[in-house]
Design goal:
single chain, about 400 residues, mainly alpha, I/LWEQ domain, about 75% helix
Length: about 400
């Protein structure tokens, strides 16, 4: 292979490489994802505050799936093939630009306008991924078939999205069903491609990358805390419900962080059957983390009188995503790494929070207390309650 051809090929990295960490380029890519996630959370906040919760949740799911899926595809590819080559960096810049274009188009999704700009950004990101997989096919002959399957599968999915968005209005009754079909096609591409041969992704690197995105989505909760404190206009009073909301928001953020970052093995082995469950299941954790921040922002608006939604709507806007976060974390981690009654701690905490949110208006403090107790109990899981780790 000539020097020029070698620069247009990506060889796989060692999946057992020691001390593998996120690169500055990956962190720059995450920064673009921050913008898109913030736009989606803001859209959910405004629709729920305007008493259009069902519509807001549906549109948030649409937007967040696009953000998460594009992020996840790049992250797993980079784990296997990021060699710092100029071609890899330039295509990453293209993908980052696509993420910014998509972020600019996300508000249109929540405003009921044609989301052509968002689609364009998504297509740019996916084009970058197709080109990266083609470079991997040139540089990794053992995984050439898998790489080509990825490239062809991604291309097919993009033609589907173009046809769906251009030919059918988002308000059409068939749109949600066809969107779910499109999502299923996207999710099926890695399942199809990895059947040929598993790509050389790095387990500890992937776990770190997912942890970093979790911190990003929890940043939405921190923004809501700042929003609540700003709404007090500097007049902090222990009796002010805005102060209560700010404190609850901060405590909730800390608890969700604590529950995620335990000493337990998130991804105990690098087989595809376990990796797909863990990797795909995280969409619940990530979306719930971002939605929790939106929920606290809804509560702030209700307390300030900027929203006509009842207080129970604000409680549910916080309680439901917090419960989903706990359920999601149980699904991807705790049901594998804990045993005995500890294994069911997070589902029990999630169910209690949901019950309080639905039955007790104005019970934010009680929901927060349940979350604190759940977090404390989870941190007390004894060594005997841990399932032996598989490496």
């Amino acid at each position: 292979m000539s020097g020029f051809s070698a620069r247009l090929a990506l060889a796989p990295r060692d999946r057992h490489e020691a001390h593998r960490v996120s690169t500055p380029l990956e962190l720059l890519f995450d920064l673009a994802s921050v913008v898109a996630i913030a736009a989606a959370a803001a859209g959910l906040h405004h629709l729920v505050a305007e008493s259009h919760a069902t519509e807001g949740v549906a549109r948030f799911a649409f937007a967040f799936f696009a953000i998460w899926w594009a992020w996840m595809n790049y992250t797993w590819f980079a784990s296997a093939y990021d060699n710092g080559a100029p071609a890899f960096r330039l295509l990453t810049f293209l993908i980052i630009f696509g993420a910014l274009v998509m972020a600019a188009g996300i508000p249109a999704i929540f405003e009921g306008q044609p989301f052509l700009l968002g689609l364009l950004g998504y297509l740019v990101m996916r084009l970058g991924m197709i080109l990266l997989w083609l470079l991997a096919a040139r540089g990794d002959l053992e995984n050439r078939n898998s790489a080509l399957r990825y490239a062809l599968g991604i291309a097919f999915a993009q033609f589907y999205w173009i046809g769906l968005v251009l030919l059918l209005q988002p308000t059409a009754s068939w749109f949600p069903i066809l969107f779910l079909l499109g999502a299923a096609i996207e999710l099926a591409v890695p399942l199809f491609a990895e059947r040929s041969r598993q790509t050389a992704w790095h387990r500890h690197h992937i776990v770190e990358r997912y942890g970093l995105l979790n911190i990003i989505v929890l940043g939405e909760c921190m923004l809501a805390v700042v929003l609540a404190l700003r709404a007090t206009h500097g007049e902090l009073s222990i009796a002010d419900p805005l102060v209560h909301t700010a404190v609850s928001g901060a405590v909730t953020t800390f608890c969700l962080w604590w529950l995620y970052f335990t000493d337990d093995e998130h991804l105990a082995r690098d087989t595809n059957d376990r990796a797909f469950v863990w990797g795909y299941g995280h969409i619940v954790v990530f979306a719930a983390g971002a939605a929790t921040g939106a929920g606290f922002s809804v509560l702030v608006g209700i307390i300030e009188g900027d929203s006509n939604a009842p207080l129970r709507t604000g409680d549910l806007a916080v309680g439901i995503p917090v419960a989903l976060y706990l359920f999601g974390l149980w699904f991807v981690r705790d049901r594998f790494c804990l045993s005995g009654y500890w294994k069911w701690l997070l589902p029990a905490g999630a169910s209690s929070i949901l019950a309080v949110a639905a039955l007790s208006p104005g019970a934010l403090e009680l929901m927060t207390l349940i979350l604190v107790l759940t977090t404390f109990a989870r941190s007390r899981a004894t060594p005997s309650s841990l399932v032996p780790r598989l490496h």
